[in-house]
Design brief:
mainly alpha; 3 helices; about 70% helix
């Protein structure tokens, strides 16, 4: 599997409407998985996956608040 093929799979999921609508549920599931895998991951993998989690969280926040900000309070 190459990164390009993975991105194509993400795109296909989106175009076919298979992307989860509930971003908060997706983010919570990802956080649960990441917490369980944390000790098995290297530092570089952690950085990348934390960026994915932050992106999911931001998307959920954007949907709730209407616009994303760096200060949710």
């Amino acid at each position: 599997m190459t990164p390009e093929k993975m991105i194509a799979m993400f795109e296909r999921q989106f175009l076919e409407g298979k992307v989860p609508v509930d971003v908060e549920y997706t983010c919570a599931g990802f956080a649960d998985w990441l917490a369980s895998a944390w000790d098995l991951l290297g530092a570089d993998e952690r950085v990348v996956l934390m960026s994915v989690g932050a992106t999911l969280w931001r998307e959920g926040y954007t949907r709730r608040a209407g616009t994303a900000t760096k200060d949710p309070w």
